[in-house]
Write a structure and sequence with these properties.
heterodimer, A: 326 residues, alpha+beta, twelve-stranded mixed sheet, six-stranded antiparallel sheet, 3 helices, globular, B: 201 residues, mainly alpha, 8 helices, 3 strands
Chain lengths: 326, 201
């Protein structure tokens, strides 16, 4: 009898531990779950994106199958064109309806995926927790709050489909927790219900005028230590990808791209030989929810972009200098 | 626009329309300016109803805070202006009518007049988002610029930083929506003692 009581207590204690472990890990783990679902599931739906005075109705078709991941994002309001992504890279049919900008894909060893939250990177910079459940686009969703621990990053509110973790609604929050932008599905279909026919662009891409990006293609990168880098980086951000290309015998100059991430937000730092005027005044700009900083220093043009507050791109951008200086 | 059409849009927003009908309606909304405007208005009203004072803040927070403080000094005027803002919305379907009552109940903010900033060279001057939620917006003075300059950097950034994380949608959408808008921004001061930067590796 005594043994039975002990076993019962142990079992109860074990269940409590398991429950508390589940409760403790779920909120953060759901970020990974979301990433996996968004990449590996097939889904198709219509969503509304609201930012400041702009409201766009858009449609996404995301197919993941034996042929890889293919995705098409199209503005139903007509203002934003369409975006197509597959193993060959990304093509952006611009809102003017007559031109397309294409950026080729990158080899994984040189451009590894950003670290997922498995390393706990995001937990250092954000408070992550549950915030209830609700129905979005006819699906039960768990709301996850992701609140930054400082003012160098934005916060998020995520509504994730209760079983798969697929993102159904998303809010970007400023450091005072006010919404900067919101995305919400009004209708979504999953798996075999997805019509892959919608992956096809409105017109064949070769019928658009190609816009030159001016950035080097992915094939010629070499693996070296960063030659230029920021001295000051906000807490929690780590270098997660680096790419260097010298001009070689081509007509391009040196090009370096560093990506810093805190596990959720990412900042890109581009250092390039100037194409023309090498004297650029320091300038900070906003492009939607993205901030950008540009300057020229030491004969290079520095460009920093990221979905982070202006203070973050400013801190990083102003401190970029040759690595040999340190 | 007929009352039935407005009610159908309202039902679409509430997820009460069949998938086939949804697809048809969404395409219509994308191509019909009047439908799209109604769709947008309904979302603004619903957001106001649901969020009770939240605001789609821009990142120029200091300006917004100043404007909010200025707003608080004249609440009655704001209320009258809010009623003017609401007037065109009146007469819509049942859902919107309910929403309007709720909007009045939470005393929404104003639709402020716009004075374009002086001294800026501009090709396009757009009105700010007239937030129904109570905080005046700084006039958005946007310059239509070629996407050639920042577009490639954004495209590559989101391809590298976003796609692998399953944030492809969220990453590319703001870029597409803000396609031709590039605005000067002011960084907000960060308390250096609270958030010390770290040296890179």
């Amino acid at each position: 009898m005594r043994r039975f009581a002990a076993l019962t207590v142990c079992a109860g204690f074990g269940m409590l531990l398991a429950a508390s472990a589940r409760a403790g890990e779920l909120a953060v783990d759901w970020l990974d779950r979301m990433s996996v679902a968004m990449n590996q599931m097939s889904y198709q739906g219509t969503f509304v994106y609201h930012q400041e005075d702009r409201m766009e109705t858009m449609r996404i078709t995301h197919v993941s199958d034996e042929n890889g991941v293919r995705e098409r994002l199209v503005s139903l309001s007509g203002g934003g064109g369409e975006m197509l992504r597959d193993a060959n890279g990304v093509s952006w049919v611009l809102g003017d309806g007559s031109s397309v900008m294409t950026d080729g894909s990158f080899q994984r060893p040189l451009f590894p995926l950003l670290p997922s939250n498995q390393e706990g990177l995001a937990a250092h910079s954000y408070e992550v927790g549950f915030a209830g459940k609700s129905v979005v686009a006819g699906h039960l969703a768990r709301k996850i709050k992701v609140e930054p621990r400082d003012r160098y990053r934005f916060g998020y509110a995520l509504w994730l489909e209760a079983h798969s973790g697929l993102l159904l609604k998303w809010e970007l929050l400023d450091p005072d927790r006010k919404p900067l932008a919101r995305l919400m599905f009004t209708e979504i279909r999953l798996g075999s219900e997805v019509d892959p026919g919608e992956l096809k662009p409105a017109r064949e891409l070769n019928r658009y005028q190609a816009v030159e990006t001016g950035l080097p293609a992915g094939g010629s990168a070499i693996s070296v230590e960063p030659r230029w880098a920021p001295v000051n980086i906000p807490p929690g951000f780590k270098l997660t990808a680096h790419r260097f290309q010298d001009g070689g015998e081509g007509d391009g100059g040196e090009y370096e791209h560093l990506v810093y991430s805190d596990g959720l937000a990412a900042v890109s730092v581009y250092i390039e030989d100037p194409d023309g005027d090498a004297d650029r005044p320091e300038r900070i700009e906003r492009h939607g929810t993205t901030h950008a900083f540009t300057k020229s220093t030491g004969g290079r043009i520095v460009t920093v972009v990221g979905d982070v507050p202006a203070a973050t791109v400013l801190m990083i951008g102003k401190s970029v200098e040759p690595a040999t200086v340190r | 626009m007929s009352k039935e059409t407005r009610e159908i849009i309202s039902s679409l927003m509430d997820g009460e329309v069949s998938r086939e009908a949804s697809r048809f309606l969404v395409r219509r909304i994308g191509s019909d300016e009047e439908l799209h405007a109604t769709w947008a208005r309904y979302h603004v009203v619903r957001d106001c109803l649901r969020n009770r004072g939240e605001v789609y803040a821009r990142s120029d927070l200091s300006v917004r805070v100043r404007n909010a403080i200025a707003d608080e000094a004249r609440p009655r005027g704001r209320f009258r202006q809010a009623r003017r803002w609401l007037k065109p919305v009146g007469g819509v379907g049942i859902a919107a009518s309910v929403a309007l009552l709720a909007v009045l109940a939470v005393n929404p903010g104003a639709a402020p007049p716009v004075n374009p900033s002086e001294g800026l060279v501009e090709q396009n001057v757009t009105q700010p988002f007239s937030s129904p939620q109570g905080i005046q917006g700084k006039p958005v003075v946007s310059r239509t610029v070629s996407t050639n300059r920042m577009g490639p950097y954004l495209l590559r950034h989101y391809q590298v930083a976003g796609a692998g994380q399953g944030r492809a949608i969220v990453g590319f959408v703001p870029v597409m929506v803000s396609n031709q808008r590039l605005e000067p921004a002011e960084p907000e001061a960060v308390d250096p003692d609270e958030n010390k930067p770290v040296d890179s590796q």
